[in-house]
## 1
Amino acid sequence: MNAHTRTVAERAIGPLPAGHPPVARPKVGVLLVNLGTPDGTDYWSMRRYLREFLSDKRVIEWPRAVWYPILHGIVLSKRPQKSGAAYAEIWNTERNESPLRTFTRAQGEKLAARLAGQAEIAVDWAMRYGNPSIASRMDALQAQGCDRILVYPLYPQYSASTTATVNDKAFEHLMGKRWMPALRTVPAYHDEPVYIDALARSIETHLATLDFEPERVIASYHGIPQSYFRKGDPYHCHCQKTSRLLEERLGWPKGRFMTTFQSRFGPEEWLQPYTDKTVEALAKEGVKRIAVLNPGFVSDCLETLEEIAGEAGEIFLHNGGEKFSHIPCLNDSEPGMDVIEHMVRRELRGWVD
Ligand SMILES: C=CC1=C(C)c2cc3[nH]c(cc4nc(cc5[nH]c(cc1n2)c(C)c5CCC(=O)O)C(CCC(=O)O)=C4C)c(C)c3C=C
Ligand SMILES: [Fe+2]
Ligand SMILES: [Fe+2]
């Protein structure tokens, strides 16, 4: 019996009296959670997904009386077709699912394999919007006997619109339970050395495969409205710190590495500089070769594959640029899995030793 199985045995409930309802052997659950995904690219699948996503008060903070008529009027009648067409361009047709779901599943499976020596840990994965839902996978973990669950929002930089809403949903699901598991959540890890190192290695590896040397390398993060930043969301500072540490680790000459924000939605001002405008300006200034990475995305998805690898690349080339390359997200690569495993092992301390 090793130290890990002993921990479980010590926590086990011991022999039950006759007639007592069965009690599962206690386990610790790890739940990886990413943003979400539609079930298909058709109008109704897209509409269901966008409705759930864009009804979230953590995502759109406008008063409901203002936002709901817009959402249920123009947005949900027009956006499902437009977004469905964009998803169709990047859809994983083999599995009939979005890349985000494919990568999140792969991360869950690889994490489970890395923790396989510890029988008391169960790993699962879920989506904040769409399927598999957080509620269904938390129930599945409890059914396997997990009395402790570590929820891992897959966002290196904290934002209320991403990290907090994952945690909200997990706690909300437990509100109705008589026997509630203990819950821990993984904090932001925007400045963790293992994460910075994984990003640096992924950049160096990718650049070594190119037949050109980029004059600029742009770290493009998903944006948030300026108003959320002014109200105290630390997301902007987290992104800037990731970029600063990454630039220091790369040791490049000043000016080669840049930070921008992408994926604006709605009429408000968002964090700047904007990725699309920057890429266009660089091309117009005469910069010929660039590469773009997305350090804030744990997996490639619509926002990286369609908006950056696709659209931003086109903008650059149409305005005089000559070479463009998208550096893939960490996904389920070995360095990417090193980051996830490191965070999980660190946050499980005291539950699993
Ligand atoms: C006000 C709206 C939005 C905020 C705030 C926001 C923050 C935010 N989002 C991510 C990560 C992802 N967003 C993705 C898609 C997406 N995001 C918004 C809007 C806001 N995001 C929309 C409307 C969409 C849907 C796509 C579309 O219809 O254009 C995705 C991709 C999901 C996929 O399946 O590929 C990710 C990932 C972060 C990190 C963030 C704030 C920090
Ligand atoms: Fe988003
Ligand atoms: Fe987008």
## 2
Amino acid sequence: MLTFDNVGMRYGTGPEVLRDVSFSLAPGSFHFLTGASGAGKTTLLRLMYLAQKPTRGTLTLFGKDVVTLPRAERPDLRRRIGVVFQDFRLLDHLTALENVALPLRIAGHSSAEIDAHVAELLSWVGLKNQVHAKPAQLSGGQQQRVAIARAVIARPDLLLADEPTGNVDDRIAVRLLHLFEEMNKVGTTIVFATHNQQLISRFPHPVLHVEQGEVHLLPPGSNPFGPETNGGAA
Ligand SMILES: Nc1ncnc2c1ncn2[C@@H]1O[C@H](COP(=O)(O)OP(=O)(O)OP(=O)(O)O)[C@@H](O)[C@H]1O
């Protein structure tokens, strides 16, 4: 589904922020992604959702070589990926319901179908009473849940989440993790970046750990930061 082969990445003429990265994600797999602040997690995710090309090496996504992929073919691959951005990226002039509905509208679903489905999902993430609120009227944690709902609504093949539970309390974080688990059970491949060691201990998924520009694959339940740390959170 996704293969990195000796990938390196630098911004402009700066140093390589990722180097010699090689790993594969099998279809239907679930990985946590960890690393201290600034280690390169967001950069790795940006490569995965085609916002960035590697500066060296080979990256294959859905059987296509991303480096040589013609620009015109990129949107087709991109549509198969759901992303929860660290800074949410909701559209300010749209309500929660309209934000979440966007991927379904783009895919051409009918309004009645969309409204029922979106309202149900927003209710599931605890925003039943906020469906008509605009982002500015929502707390950070509520905006984050809208962003998660928008990323999962169209059932992407690959779901990438950058600290998707960073703004909610532990109870809601566990509930949201269950939503990702449900998606994973029906076939979505998931990469979930987090500093939350409690989640990593509780859910049995392997860990991609970024350290000094290298990516290491660790077994489920690993604590890459050691018991005395808070996970390297900034
Ligand atoms: N647009 C950019 N231009 C230049 N350097 C960048 C850019 N974005 C990130 N970097 C650098 O790349 C490195 C990795 O950053 P990245 O955002 O991928 O880390 P991160 O692990 O996601 O951090 P955090 O946990 O704080 O979000 C950092 O040294 C950062 O300064």
## 3
Amino acid sequence: MILGRRDVLEVRRLCKAFSGLKAVDDAALDVRAGEIVALIGPNGAGKTTLFACIAGFHKPDSGVVRLDGADITGRAPHRICAAGMVRTFQITQPFATISVRENIMVGAYARTSDRDAAAARAEAIARQVGMGAQLDRRGADLTVAGRKRLELARALATGPRLLLLDEVMAGLNPTEIGEIVEVIRAIRTGGVTILLIEHVMQAVTSLAERVYVLNQGRVIAEGTPAQVAADAGVVEAYLGHGAAARLGGAHA
Ligand SMILES: Nc1ncnc2c1ncn2[C@@H]1O[C@H](COP(=O)(O)OP(=O)(O)OP(=O)(O)O)[C@@H](O)[C@H]1O
């Protein structure tokens, strides 16, 4: 047992329905200080909705979200950001006509109102995510990989203790995935705790100490990447009813 690792994030009995569809159904999870935790699950499992409820973009129907022990359930995103938690978005939307530097400064203004300080912070963070040479490029001129890095940088510029990453590797090639995995690892080494939604299993396996699996709004498994990959219920959720038996003894 690891002693002394406190919970940064606690989610309990969280529910969110859309017109009767239970997108998140009694979900619970914990993220401890310094961890990288992954949230995985088939398409439509409720991962993004759970993130949105945690970060204040949706008001949950019921349940509790605690950040460092404080109840933040239903608080507005900017207040949650000020409290030290920020999320990125799956669909990246950089400001197209302004530079990478200015895009990152938008995040930095969450911590400072001084323009020079925000610019200096933006430049330091750009270097941290490997965008030091692209500071003057316009948002519109970035590749998919560049937009993903910028999304990460904008979030990081707000100075979070807990960073929620929604599919930052989607659409990237294996080389780009390898590079962003290293960036994420370095962010954690710098003291930021990370919860990430990810479909790229190679990245989940190499980054995450623990994984939660969501299916139809419910957490169906939790454990190390190897433990959840060997879980019959998880195999069923991804591949359909009876899959575990069809795959044979290893998953039965
Ligand atoms: N704003 C909304 N209004 C109505 N239904 C929604 C809304 N957002 C999500 N849903 C539905 O809630 C369910 C969960 O969606 P969600 O996007 O959270 O899943 P996901 O696990 O993030 O999926 P993916 O991996 O495909 O991004 C889906 O059935 C989706 O259609």
